[in-house]
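Human: I'm a chemist; would you kindly supply sequence and structure tokens for a protein?

Assistant:
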Amino acid sequence: MLQLGKSLRQIKNYKMLKPVLPNCFRWTWLKPQFGGLKMSYSTVTPQEIHLGQTELPDYIREPIQNVLNKHQLNSLSERIFMSLEYTLPRCKNQALLISLLTYKDLMESQGLKAVDLRRAQILGWCVELLHMSLLIFDDIMDHGTLRYGQLCWHKLEHIGMSGINDGLIIENIIYFVLHEYFGDKEYYVELCNLMREVTLITAYGQLMDLMVSQGSIALFTKEMFRDISDRKTALSAFYLPLALPMHLAGVKNPIAFKQTKKISLD
């Protein structure tokens, strides 16, 4: 609980996550409105964000398996799900948490149904999948050995550099999950475009990080650090799981997205 709260408070204290007894989290933040700020509260249970689970939920496994079945690739199922479930415990479900709580808050007056919450969970999982792929790539490029107390995926004896391909597979799985659940929605293109844009900018941030690490220490200025952290981390970790459920909730005002991005990067 404390780690999740610590992570979210990085968004310039606009959002604070607090444990609420007996078994839920509270999302407390100042929501900009015309004429001032409104204090907003939402809660989510550990079960809703699959906290502590080491397996993907069925609603994410099924579209992945459907693609394998469609292309007669069942022989790869074990490897695909092994890469996903090995990497899963290294993710903190933070994106899933932000996505679900953001959607709850935006839709608080409209009476949420289980199917609505499931869509928000799916969007959160798509961001988690992106983070899984990025962790694999980052560990390989940084010649990492350990991540969150366990061997990096590529350091397993039978994996090695083939882990690069696993990362690519995980990244592209995202778009099959999006198509499975949102392909008939009017905001489907916006979801895909946002995911692609943030993935590309994150890759730019990774390149900046690599170039600085290979150059003179004089290049690593405060401004460069900020540029790298904004592009490599903030957009995918904070803005993406906020903006995706905004599309789901029907937010269309570009100013709202612009303000959300500014808060995420501050």
About this structure: The longest strand covers residues 24-33. Confidence is low (pLDDT under 50) at residues 1-24, 32-39.
